[in-house]
Design brief:
Length: 199
């Protein structure tokens, strides 16, 4: 079993037999274990635009109600992976290893591993550069490194964006995790489960 934390209700992690989704209503900060996790903690207070939101609306940078800290604690306790936008300020706040933009895993002081990958390589209409932090993983699945070639523009704080050819990316597509990328994240968490069973 894999716990999918901080996911959208009815989204990509629902309806999978070995996945237990925790949406906002369930409050993933209360996840008690013991299964490995895939965590998508909210990113708005950690993004590059968080300073602008703080200045304009008074929404404090990093004030996410403890969601990222909870996701990190779950990953370090039960194993698994966190997904967050590239250049997230959460990495600095929690002293996580900053990955190279062209791909590859780098090890952190606490034993976890980080990498940068574009969700555009997995079907997202925008490049959507993403940082991953994995913990307790022995074997990483093969990832598609480098630029994806996706042409859309995606910013979490903007509800709808245009692609370079004038098409629109609806808000739901901006936020959505492509199914192939979801499957990669689940494979990372499943490798933790397999390692635990083998031990």
């Amino acid at each position: 079993m894999i716990a999918a934390l901080f996911v959208e209700k009815g989204g990509a992690y629902y309806g999978i037999p070995d996945v237990d989704p925790w949406d906002e209503e369930r409050d993933a900060r209360l996840y008690p274990g013991p299964f490995p996790v895939v965590a998508h903690p909210p990113c708005a207070r950690w993004s590059r635009l968080a300073g602008m939101c703080e200045a304009k609306y008074g929404l404090k940078r990093g004030a996410d109600g403890g969601c990222f800290a909870s996701a990190l604690a779950s990953v370090r306790r039960w194993g698994g992976v966190i997904e967050h936008p590239a250049d997230t300020r959460a990495w600095d706040a929690f002293d996580l290893p900053v990955p190279p933009s062209d791909g590859g895993w780098v090890r952190g002081i606490e034993g976890g591993w980080a990498c940068c990958v574009e969700q555009g390589s997995y079907g997202h209409p925008a490049p959507k550069r993403t940082w991953l932090y994995a913990y307790g993983v022995r074997e990483f699945p093969s990832l598609r490194w480098g630029p994806s070639g996706a042409t859309g523009t995606c910013t979490s704080s903007v509800p709808e964006r245009r692609t370079r050819d004038g098409g629109r990316i609806p808000a739901a597509a901006n936020r959505a995790t492509p199914i192939p990328f979801r499957d990669v994240l689940l494979d990372i968490a499943r490798s933790v489960a397999a390692a635990k069973e083998a031990a």
